[in-house]
Amino acid sequence: MSKKSYFKYDKDKKDVDLHEVHELIEMGLNKEEIAKEFGISTRYVKKVMQDYYDDY
Question: How far is CA 27 from the centre of its chain?
């Protein structure tokens, strides 16, 4: 019996500039719209937003 192959399903996350995310928040976009704009997940957007507000 052969072993199962495990694949990495996570996509490579793009580097997202915190200032760009903050500008989109100021424009009134929500997490889903920002995620579509950058092509990333909403959970990653939430994490970036938390990092931004923790730092500033």
Answer: 18
Report d(CA 48, CA 35) in Å as an integer. Answer: 11
User: Across residues 33-37, what is the average pLDDT?
Assistant: 89
Integer CA distances (angstroms), 8 to 40, 42, 43, 51, in order: 16, 19, 18, 26
CA angle 1, 6, 2 (to 5 degrees): 10
Q: What is the distance between the alpha carbons of residues 38 and 21, in angstroms, rounded to a whole number? A: 9
pTM over 0.85: no
